Amino acid sequence: MTETPTIDVHAHVLLPQVEEAVAGRSGLAAARELDARRNGPDALAVSAAMIRERIPRLTDVTARLAAMDAAGVDVQLVSPSPSHYHYWAEPDLARTVWRLANAGTAAHCAQAPGRLYGLGLVPLQHPDLAAEALDDALGHGLRGVEISSHAPGRELSDPAYEPFWARAEETEAIVFLHPFGCTLDERLDRWYLSNTVGQPTENAVALSHLIFSGVLDRHPGLKIIAAHGGGYLPTHIGRSDHAWRARSDARGCAHPPGTYLRRLHFDSLVHDPHVLRELVRVAGADRVLLGSDFPFDMGTEDPLGALRAAGLPAPDHDAVRGGNAAALLRLDRGEQP
């Protein structure tokens, strides 16, 4: 390619071997029951049909590449389906999950070198194992890992994660923050509010924990990508800045919260050109990356069309289209998986 490739940083792979490993294990039934309560029966029925229809694009590299070509996407950063987190798993099973996920994602991407790059998983429910799992992912040639917005009983501000953040910073690993499930539970169990309201809420809460707790002060080199444009936080960051200035109990970070948006990265998947322009304004054009949530129905099959609709200046458009991701993935250094 003579010009910067078009890079989609938000795409998923489904790994049947992970689900086979957890089948019948203690804790799975309770996790599924919680998921059912949070989403409601209508959402579960629609989602099941949607996933069945999209299995080829989630598992078959040929189908994935054909869809990428149709959308004008040259490169995808592929992460496991968030349904593979399984943060209920005890340590031994958690190790099996991340090893299968890391190896499976690497094998999937290896079928299309130069076009597919991957992310692995870490067990947020076991902070003492997170750095080990990150190293396992990097050892498979993956570019980093995907995490949710929290684990049961733990926020991302928990000091127990310090070794993980330190290792991620040291290795320049990408950490893709992608929520799965919302703790508002049954309040969102109709009309797919569990996703439409729940996901951006979880993004905003998780990023606020990272900012206000000082994680980004202690680890300024972290390479975090927030899915779904960072949720509600970027467009409502003024309220956080006001709290930081007005209240002593909101001074956990060294600088106004809004300044940390320019230390983070965000995908472009906000479903509104006005919101995308605002995200670029507050975070900077060098901090926004093209994202589609391939191939799920809450994503977009035309991420380039969504980007064009924002009407960004040409240099900003090209940066979001692929320039920023190429630098983050170190493609500008000619590095390969």
From TrEMBL:
Alphabetical list of SUPFAM superfamilies matching this protein: Metallo-dependent hydrolases
Keyword Lyase among record annotations: yes
Keywords: Lyase
Record carries keyword Lyase: yes
InterPro entries: ACMSD, Amidohydro-rel, Metal_Hydrolase
Coiled-coil regions listed: none
Domain Amidohydrolase-related: start-end pairs: 7-331
Full protein name: Amidohydrolase family protein
Lineage: Bacteria, Bacillati, Actinomycetota, Actinomycetes, Streptosporangiales
